[in-house]
Design goal:
Distance between the termini: 16 Å
Number of strands: 5
Order of helices and strands: EEEHHHEEH
Shape: globular
CATH class: Mainly Alpha
Helix content: 25-40%
Number of domains: 1
Structural class: alpha+beta
CATH architecture: Orthogonal Bundle
CATH topology: Arc Repressor Mutant, subunit A
Radius of gyration: 13 Å
Strand order of the largest sheet: 1-2-3
Strand content: 15-25%
């Protein structure tokens, strides 16, 4: 799992880790998504929140969340979670740093 830290300012954030990952600047939307990824909140719930906060339409919000979660996964920044049953809502994700027993301060 990644050793990851985040710095938040003015609604935006910067993520950086010790695995040679260059710092990643998160705009307001990505920073909001990052703050909501906790292993319990579904991607559908996060997309719903984005529609309310940023005025995105549902499809745009879902595409934005899915794209960011995919990016996080491709960079090893999400811990694996069990796949939900077909009748469950959308898959859940948890940042790799939050999956550890001791949460990392952000």
């Amino acid at each position: 799992m990644a050793d990851l830290a985040a710095y938040h300012e003015a609604g935006e954030a910067v993520l950086w880790g010790s695995r040679g990952m260059p710092p990643a600047h998160l705009d307001r939307t990505a920073a909001a998504i990052w703050s909501l990824i906790d292993g319990h909140t579904t991607t559908a719930q996060i997309a719903h929140d984005l529609t309310a906060v940023f005025g995105l339409d549902r499809d745009e919000a879902e595409n934005t969340v899915d794209g960011f979660v995919l990016w996080l996964g491709q960079h090893g920044l999400l811990a694996p979670v069990d796949a939900p049953a077909r009748s469950s809502p959308t898959p859940r994700a948890v940042p790799a740093d939050r999956a550890a027993a001791d949460p990392v301060s952000t």
